Amino acid sequence: MGCRLCEVYCVTQHSKSKDIIKAYKGEESRPVSGIYFEEKGSVSFALQCRHCDDAPCLEACITGAMYRDGETGRVLHDKDKCVGCWMCIMSCPYGVIKPDFEQKKVASKCDLCIEAEFPACVEHCPNEAIILVDEEGERIY
Hints:
Elements: H1 5-13, H2 20-26, E1 35-40, E2 43-48, H3 56-60, E3 66-68, E4 75-77, H4 87-91, E5 98-100, E6 106-108, H5 120-124
Antiparallel strand pairs: 1-2, 3-4, 5-6
């Protein structure tokens, strides 16, 4: 369908206000979406960080800004440690780490909405095209 509601709700979830209108119209700097689209004609495919077991971005990061959360196993990014060298962007095999020029000229990626119970993209996808699964492939949401 390619409605891109996942992008809208990702940005909203990571905004200061958590309000869909304020996130797009009222806030000084809007967060970069952690989900991206590849499109060819009428076919679209949503892409986001896969939090790889063997994550090349972790090895490539020269400052330790990319790290694995010991509790959840998620690959996260500390924007305060990031120097914008883009090594993580170049090393990601899925091309889902993007530059965030609006906020601080740092890398930006999906964090699976760490502050929420479930990722906003999964929760708000009207067609259930984006799902959350555990390590065994069992559907969580």
